[in-house]
Structure prediction request, 143 residues.
Amino acid sequence: MYIEIVGYSGIDNDDYKEFLNLRRKIYVDDLGYNKYAEFDGLDNKCDYFLLKYNKEYVGVLRYTIDNENIIIDRFGILKDYRNKVLGSLLLKFVLDEVKLSGRKVFLLSSDTKLKYFTNFGFIKTNKKKKFGKKEFEILELKR
Prediction:
């Protein structure tokens, strides 16, 4: 088994095309998100990560830094690779990195994934954010 996580800032590289392609497969094709809401034009202000499993890209995650906060969104794994610990590896890798910044860490979550994220120390803030017709819980990482 081969696992690699690569991170980038900026959109001027070939891996950014892989990131966009994978996001489309996960969010638009598989989960049915509106493609105009999914691709929000903010990627040039984000750090993003790709997860390779056996030399195939299977997972994505991006975050933005907003003054004293880090907001994680666009975290997903291809359908055939879910429930195999890969998403947990990617999230843990990124959390270990962002915790070093000392900033507050927030994450956008669908209702169905709340329990999953509480296992990593996230709690509900009772705030929500809407993308297209989908509404997401804003969770905060408790230290």
